[in-house]
Design brief:
Length: 98
C-alpha cells in the first residue's frame, strides 16, 4: 500500500460564482495511481462538488525520511492540521537545516 496526494479541482457554485476553479488535496492509501484516482473519485465530497482529478502524487519519502504505511484496525483518516492563526502563533524560530 502507498500514500497518494490527489489534487482535486472543482467549480464552487454554492459559495462563489463558479467561474474560478477551487482545489483541495486529499490523501488516500492505494496500490497504484489508478487505484488512488478511483478511491478519490468515490469520496462523498468529490461526488457532491462534481470534482475532477488535476494531479496525483505518490509520496514515498520526504526530507530524507521514508514513508511507511502500516495497517491499523481503524478505517478513519488521521490527519492533523493547524490553521493560519495557529501557525502565526508558532513563533519565528528558525527552521533547522538538514
Amino acid at each position: 500500500m502507498n500514500l497518494f496526494s490527489v489534487h482535486c479541482g472543482y467549480y464552487d457554485r454554492e459559495t462563489g460564482d463558479g467561474v474560478y476553479e477551487s482545489h483541495i488535496n486529499v490523501f488516500v492509501a492505494a496500490e497504484n495511481f489508478a487505484d488512488a484516482k478511483k478511491k478519490a473519485k468515490a469520496l462523498p465530497q468529490f461526488i457532491a462538488k462534481k470534482m475532477h482529478v488535476d494531479g496525483i502524487q505518490q509520496i514515498s519519502g520526504v526530507d530524507g525520511y521514508k514513508v511507511v504505511m502500516e495497517k491499523t484496525d481503524s478505517p478513519e483518516a488521521s490527519v492533523k492540521s493547524i490553521c493560519y492563526d495557529d501557525i502565526k502563533n508558532l513563533g519565528n524560530e528558525p527552521v533547522a537545516a538538514n
